[in-house]
Structure formats: structure tokens, C-alpha cells
Amino acid sequence: MSVTQPVRSPRRRAPRNSLNADRILDAAIALLDRDGAEAFTMRALAQELGVGTMAVYSHFRGKDEISDAVAQRLMDTIELPRTGTGDPRGELREVCRGVYRLFTEHPSALQLLTIRPLRGDDAIAVIDRMLDLLRRAGLDRTAAARAHVALMQYTVGSALWNTRRARALCEEGVRDRVRAKLDALPADRYPALVSLAPELLCAQDQRTEQYEFGLDGILDGLLGGGRGL
């Protein structure tokens, strides 16, 4: 017996002359965040918009140009703290939190960062502000450069860890299987892990709080514990 497959409704076509660069970038961000960079093609973007592929080419030369424009737009959302507060550590913490928030709210930005270097002025402004704050906090030239790289590695790595873990835990039954596996561990072989399993799971679930806990520890280490700098 044959089974009738449901017919998918065609995506509504966009009104004539309604397409512009802003609409294209909005759709590109939505597509990237939902389906990932691997699924981002000019054809998929045109379907997202409800237009023909050539209509997108009338505004952008290709996928790389759109990717750069998306990265620039997302970097624009990072608000740099007001300068001159006399608290370089606090300002530096806010910059790092802004980068982390961007990468977790828009996984597409994180994917684009690993595929294509960010070339816009806003990315450069973030780097420049972080280096300036590290120098104002008392670090020498070499230490400031190395501290900047360390902070970005931690921030990007934390965002990647948390977004992937959150996506994995959305699958049905995954969280219960993780807890069951921990509960089944022999305490005589893994005493510390068995004892601290509830606290470990709690720390992993508190994604933003956990990131900030680690960020504060790194800043204290890099700046000599100088919260009052």
C-alpha cells in the first residue's frame, strides 16, 4: 500500500522590489543561526527570502561578501564600555562578556570566525580596546599581547563548548543518559567524580555564570588579583 507524502507548502514569494541588503543580511543571520554555516548557500538564502537566486546577486557578489557583511553586522552589536572609568579590569570584563554574549546568542558569528577572519573595523576596535585596557592595567607589551590571546581563546572556547553542549542536550533523553552514566560510576574507582557529580552538572548547566566565574579567575591571574585597578 502506498503512503501519500505530505505536500510541503511553497515558500511565499517576496513582493516585487521589496528586497534590499538589510533584508538579505537578516535572512542570512537567521539561516546561519538555525542551520549552520555548512547549510549556508546562495540558493538556501534565496529560498529563505522567497526570491530567485539572481535577485540576491543583484545586492551582493556572492556568499563570501554576504558572510563578511554578516560578521560586520554582528560585531556591531558588541557595545564597548565607556572609557575613562578608572577601572580597566571592569571594562575588560565587559568587553569579554560582550564577545561571549554575541557568540552564544548568534552561533553563526562563531562559525564565521573560524571560517573567515573578521575584517571589519568593529572587530579591530574590540581588539584595540582590549589591548589598551591590558596596558592600562599595568601589563607590559608582551604580557598584554599574550593576555589578549588567552582571554579570546577562553571566551571563544567557552562559547563553542556551551553552544554545542546546549544543542546536544536538546536531543530527547540525552540529559537523563548523562546522569545515569554518572550514577553508575563505581565510587571506589572514581571517588572525586562520583562525590562531586551533582555540583559538576550544576556548574555545566549554569553556562553564563560558569563562563564569568572562569573569566574572573583568569583576569585575577593575569592582572595579579587587582580587582581594584
UniProtKB/TrEMBL annotation:
Cross-referenced SUPFAM superfamilies: Homeodomain-like (SSF46689), Tetracyclin repressor-like, C-terminal domain (SSF48498)
Span of domain HTH tetR-type: 18-78
UniProt keyword terms in alphabetical order: DNA-binding, Transcription, Transcription regulation
DNA-binding region extent: 41-60
Domain of life: Bacteria
Transmembrane region(s): none
Signal peptide: none
Identification of the protein by name: Transcriptional regulator, TetR family
InterPro entries (UniProt xref): Homeodomain-like_sf, HTH-type_TetR-like_transc_reg, HTH_TetR, Repressor_TetR_C, Tet_transcr_reg_TetR-rel_C_sf
GO molecular function: DNA-binding transcription factor activity; transcription cis-regulatory region binding
One biological process term in Gene Ontology: negative regulation of DNA-templated transcription
